[in-house]
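Bumping with the actual sequence this time:
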Amino acid sequence: MRNLYLALLVYAVSTPAYAAEDVQDKRWEIGVSGGTTLIGGGDDQFYIAGSITREIGDAYIGISASFTDPSETQGLLRAVPARTQQITVIGGIGLNAVSIDGRISLGRRKFDTESLGSDGNVVLVDSSGEIFGAGLSLTYDIPVGENGFFSPSISADYDSVDIGRLATTPGGRLLTVEEREDGVSGALAFSYVHLFGKAAAHSAGPYVAIVASSNSTVFSPGTGGERMAQLAAIRNAPGQGDVWMEVGGSASFGLSDTLRLSLSATQTLGFIGPEATSLGAGLSISF
């Protein structure tokens, strides 16, 4: 969302006064997005989301709803797949070159009947879990030439998520155990946005971050940017901290005065267990 705010700001200052006034009149935005996260080159999980945002002066507030459906592949500790529904309230403010953004997330995780275990036995997982998260980020935008912005940022997040684990009794019977994992994460990120096209309507640029988490099972950036937000609860090493890098890029295209297309791709480097690649696309309309 910060990138959207930056794009609107740059568009306003790079166009004639009458065009800037037209941008300022568009205070509402409705968006839909979706994508997939490829884990270890084999597993994947897809997500869909919708959001509505309102600008209020130099600030904004919004709400989004998302649904994540994971693959059914279990890892070393045989984590049970869970379909996650989540509501996130977002908000932020721009103070000249500095922007502050925050989020609070609440959700439910449904553990369904799955064919689990090496023998393919069906195990009934008749329970639901919860997910909670909160995060805050601080970004400083530095103009580069006439058409670019370099933006270092720092962020901190807390996340808690219920996870189902598949266990085997001494007698060989399969059962599931629900566990709660929580942890704090922080990131130092750098991004560059280059504006191009008529009236600087389009933008694109790379992104890199160093992320550290006290529990890599539950990290959900906030931390390394919203592009990796669907990676919650994919690790199979409970309570294990980690430090890794994220690299990627994003692009945004103004299809009309009100319609915008956004694309993103991010890759983890040095993450515990299998690496992850996140791909996403979204459409938004402002009015």
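The tokens above came from a reply further down the thread. The radius of gyration is 20 Å.
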